[in-house]
Amino acid sequence: MQKMSVLLLSWFGMGCIATPTEAPTFAQISAPDDVELAWSYAYNELDDGIGALIILDFFVFDGNTGLPMDNIEVELLTNWGGAYLIPQTAVKIVPPPEELSPEECDANVDGQIDEDAPDACSWNWDTSGNQYFEMATEFADAYKPNYMLAGTDEHGVLRAWTYIDSLPVSHGDADGNYEFDGFVVWASIGHMNADVEIGTGN
Fold first, then answer.
1. What is the CATH number for 106?
2. In total, how many domains does the chain have?
3. pLDDT tens digits, residue range 32-43?
4. Residue 7: which pLDDT band, with cuts at 50, 70 and 90?
5. Is residue 19 one of the residues assigned to a domain?
């Protein structure tokens, strides 16, 4: 697998989007390279607010000409419950917040961000991009989809942000040495599939 940095793009608002159409038989789909993550058991717990956000670009093109095909319906599915498929429009870059104290985010000390806490308490830090990003509330709080149905853009690309909250553990011992299994994100245009494996490479 190839190593992949976490990339962040600017916020895109929702506009008028035509209903995606079924892919014709001459359409083909290609997947991005497999992704290798640096991972630790220390932040492998579900809903701990620590994870990785990566971009997956699936490309649909005319198999005869190689030209991109826009507005083609693509289904995405992941086989791991600790990874969530987030629409591009649900992620935005935010300015660095002022430093917050733990009491401002978790006044009742239950390990969860308080409902009335400042927005910045739920922002995420991208160490490779040196930026903060924020997911739309329904995704950050409760909505954790492993399925997406959407259409390609004018470049033939369906972009999905994949938030990895945890990875499956394949081995662990009393000394704290852990190994992780990978998982797969599948993309389908009906008559043809493509997939990306995400893991640690161990």
1. 2.60.40.10
2. 1
3. 999 998 888 887
4. very low
5. no
